[in-house]
Design brief:
This protein is an alpha+beta fold. The chain contains seven helices and 21 strands. The protein has three domains: about 35 residues; about 210 residues, Jelly Rolls (Sandwich), CATH 2.60.120.560; about 120 residues, 2-Layer Sandwich (60s Ribosomal Protein L30, Chain: A), CATH 3.30.1330. Helices cover about 25% and strands about 30% of the residues. The radius of gyration is 33 Å and the shape is globular. It starts with a helix and ends with a strand. The N terminus is likely disordered. It comes from Mucilaginibacter hurinus. InterPro entries: Bact_OuterMem_StrucFunc, OMP_bac, OmpA-like, OmpA-like_sf. This is OmpA-like domain-containing protein. It is found in: Cell outer membrane.
Length: about 425
Amino acid sequence: MKRNLLLCTALLALSAQAANAQFLNRLKKRAEEAVTRKAEKAIDKTVEDPYSLKKEKAAEQPQQTQPQQTTEAPKAPAATKTETAPAPLQAYAKYDFIPGQNLIYSDNFAGEAMGELPAGWNSNGNGAVTKLNNFSGNWLRMDQNAVYLPGKDLATGDNFTVEFDMILDLTSKGYGFPDIFIGMIATGKVPAGDNSILTEQYGIKSFHLDISPGSSGSTNLRFAAEKGRTVYFRSPVKSYKVLEAYYGKPAHIAIQAQKERLRLWINGDKIIDAPKALPVGDVFNQLFFKISSSNYTNEQLGIYVGNISVAQGAPDLRNKLVNEGRFSTSGILFDVNTATIKPESAGVLQEIANVLKENPAINVRIVGHTDADGTAAANQKLSINRAESVKSALAETYGISVTRMQVAGKGATQPVAPNKTETGKAQNRRVEFIKL
């Protein structure tokens, strides 16, 4: 009996030890599995989001100061035309763009209601005229996923130019920015500004520049033209990280069409020069701006356009000045109410200088003209100062002797168009060269 009791006790002890060993083994195995799962989870996270560290560091970078918009008119007194002395020309290097001979459309949104789409424009989105605290004048803010159409039929002809300023207020939060399309359409019998153009931008023929804004050097450009819906010409994708340096300030875009040839400049850089880019026949008559969509809200982006001008006809500066003895241009541009020449005027000034160098016997009188805004005395003084600025630029930048140039100012006394529209005012703001 005693032996049986001892045997049972021994068996129970062995059973307890085995159970305890099994428990410890299971506990050890679970601990090992937990460590393995944690390691695998860390590996999976690294594979799924290899840029997580870059995104965190990007978020730590300070943001640039961007233009602030307001839809309220400024409370400061209205600007008056200044009588300051001419300032030195800051020109684009090697910029050979010359606007068309006849200005047919100009829009700087002056006099438009703040917070509203400009009068005569059509859109399927929310566009609004606004002011920016860092820049003068009015600007059209364009929201995403929308098309914006001036309602005027432009009837450009075979030779024409398009110019405008654009401000991109963009700060990356890790998403791609919306693409921006700017182009022209030959609408045929469809009226300019028609609702059907908001749906598709093809027409009989069309062309557009596609700006794909990026960050850290990822900005790309592409130009394309269509005949109906068929691709007629498409340029290679061009990397253009230079544009990112202009975020938050105006970039000037200029397009020149001469029959089939198309040339395009951004801030003085020639981006495209394609001799067979445009289909012949029919007339481009509808300008359009289109903004695609993105993961950003409209409040996180700012896309603005202003100072739009369209001119028709090939430049005829040489013949006008040498043979006819007189050349007038609205292509020499000045800052508002000042005699400071804008850099995009460099192409016209360079061509005038070339003609004068090739014809050393020709002397000229440079005559400034203004629109009718402001007082007669201020306009007279401003027109003389602007003529002086042009003379100084031709002498100091382009090497034309000052003894070959005289200056005069006519203020608003010799208009070539009514001062009732922005296009008429832009036509009257001109510089005339008269052979002596």
